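haha ok so turns out i had the wrong file open the whole time. this is the CORRECT one, sorry everyone. sequence first:
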Amino acid sequence: MVITLFALWLESSLLASMQVMPIVYPHLIFQIDAILRLLGMQPLLGAADFMFNPDVPILVRFVSLNHAWLLYFLLFVIWRLGYDRRAFLAQSLFAAVVIVVSYLAVTDMHAPVGNINKVFGLSDGEPQTFMAQWLWLIVLVVYEFLNNAAVHALLRRFFPSIIQPFPPQTLRT
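then structure:
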């Protein structure tokens, strides 16, 4: 959200394009699950189950409503500013750094901050034991890269691209 604010403030298509990549699929899954729950049907993955849990603080659920609108807002922003193709590499590298830093910052899943960015496994209760921890981190980085590649392909196809490595220079006489 902070980077999205900077993208808006600076009118940066690169930052906006970077922010849309990691949220497309999770936000769509969240929205589908929430709609299915509202219709009284079985959700696909249970991604929105916490929104219907009265034990989860109302402030957490309120803040989580960004899953309903942020994707569409960012798509509007890149439609206006243009899709910056450099975002694929930039977001892939950024995601890899965030995953490694998250793991190094919290080397114990049961620390007060918990399982940040799922670096210990998909469960918040117990760490995954299916594979070595270093291999799990590689899986996360590869997943982010593949996710970004898929979203990049969609955005390149459906949004106007800007290809400006540097801002245009004005000539003064």
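Strands lie at 83-84, 161-162.
again sry for the mixup
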